[in-house]
Amino acid sequence: MKFGFRLLIQRTVLGFTKSPNPNQNRNLHISASRILGLRCAINQTHKPCQNWGRFRSFPVTYYSYNKPNYVADYSTTLESRVNEKNFESIYVQGGGDLGKTVGEELRLKGIVGSEKIESCEEGVGRVETVAEKEAWRLLREAVVTYCGSPVGTLAANDPGDKMPLNYDQVFIRDFVPSALAFLLKGEGEIVRNFLLHTLQLQSWEKTVDCYSPGQGLMPASFKIRTVPLDDTKVEEVLDPDFGESAIGRVAPVDSGLWWIIMLRAYTKITGDFAMQERVDVQTGIKLILNLCLSDGFDMFPSLLVTDGSCMIDRRMGIHGHPLEIQSLFYSALRCAREMLAFDEGSKNLVRTINNRLSALSFHIREYYWIDMKKINEIYRYKTEEYSTEATNKFNIYPEQIPHWLMDWIPEGGGYMIGNLQPAHMDFRFFTLGNVWSIVSSLSTPKQSNSMLNLIESKWDDLVGHMPLKIVYPALELEEWRIITGSDPKNTPWSYHNGGSWPTLLWQFTLACIKMGRTELARKAVEVAETRLHADHWPEYYDTRSGRFIGKQSRLYQTWTIAGFLTSKMLLENPEKASLLFWEEDYDLLEICVCGLSKTGRKLCRRGAAKSQILV
Ligand code: GLC
């Protein structure tokens, strides 16, 4: 770990108008700095430096309005550099006495009125880029308060948007990267408030044509409304939307799962374990679990949902058992198992969770996974096999393998398909489901590595000009017409149908950190950084390689902003990132409730799965 000094000279333009003349501007900057002095936050929580003066290199970083920041060696005098640049701020980073010397030089030359030097660990105290600084400002501006306390962030906060629809609401899924950004910054209050307030909304009575959703459902979003109490007083109320107003009237299955995941992230990062022990929080977890674990007609351990019940919240042919929901379900079960108070009352529930986790991981690892070898197997499948011994259990007709896939699948990579139903495999690559199966260890370590290999070798298709494609490839022509219902927002390579969503960067970063492939995440963050800032933080990008800002994309989309910040902070704090992912749970591999091994009638296939994982 490197240590260094940071000396920050921040120009503050309050009360000054920007001049078109760069020279005038420069003078303005300097005089502004003189008047307002140097501002540098000293973070009391930083660990004291152990190695003062260890690093002798002394880079000087300039930031300017129109030019990208750059680093120059401290070889010419600072004064000449300052005078030739139209600067916004100067950051001087370095170690030892040199830091103090430069600070003193700046002060003596009258460039700054006062100076402070902060010692910092590189990473924690790293200087923010222009994009990061703007992102933090925008994220804070998107914060919504309820009775004076911060409770969430707006989905989008574009002052120029005259038709915000429901983008002026706090979405549960959208808040996740905001929550992480705040938590990683050491600000837990907003996350705690969010978790407790959404908990109160959990059992709110809402109906669609006199039918209400199941108890335990978390809303997709909520809005704070001001309601008049009498002529003089008003009251603020939290108004949830469970799908009864949402386009398509879909209940958000992912909300409750994300809520549980967020709760665990909150307790892990803040250490506030009392939060998860609260009676109302324990009840909230159980209500969500009861809803997900209740018996139905299903033969599979995966969760059966309608189309559009997650991030893709419009018709896109993902009804059934979409991978995204299964990955979130798996990690929510793992989180809940960790957080439930273990007593007589929860014993059975924990047993049910363990059985489901075990069955679910087997199911996904075995039947959703495809690579060259597996595709070749499917290609040669026999069909109409009637027996419990069938190889082609779901009666998949080989003709279903799409042409694009035969050429696309790389030698050293593989992925989880999007969905599995009787006689139907959805071969599309869905990014969130795949990266979250890495994060949650729903996939085996070998599969996780192969998925990242695939993303690396298909970089132009999945990252291109903007990370990351929500799904690859897009539905076109007749398929688009039938599957999306001719949705004009989901045209090929736009929005949910093959658009590129920068918010997916943080989940990808987490997966890369977990698998020791940070170079991939850094590369993606680099692709995103300049463009997002220049393009005003769009919600999504269009075209095959993500070259254009999305047709109907919102600007100043909060989860784009927060996803970028979270990715950066995760890369800088890998030890914190490790609190947010899961390793393989070897005990789960031992669980088998099918009873086959006991009867000796047949071999339980789960034994084979175990040996696969340990490879
Ligand atoms: C869109 C997205 C959805 C998101 C919402 C708010 O509807 O499909 O995932 O939560 O916008 O940003």
From TrEMBL:
It catalyses: Hydrolysis of terminal non-reducing beta-D-fructofuranoside residues in beta-D-fructofuranosides. SUPFAM superfamilies: Six-hairpin glycosidases (SSF48208). Its EC number is 3.2.1.26. One of its GO terms (cellular component) is mitochondrion. One of its GO terms (molecular function) is endo-alpha-N-acetylgalactosaminidase activity. Keywords: Carbohydrate metabolism, Glycosidase, Hydrolase. One of its GO terms (biological process) is sucrose catabolic process. Invertase that cleaves sucrose into glucose and fructose. Belongs to the glycosyl hydrolase 100 family. PANTHER family: ALKALINE_NEUTRAL INVERTASE A, MITOCHONDRIAL, PTHR31916. This is Alkaline/neutral invertase.
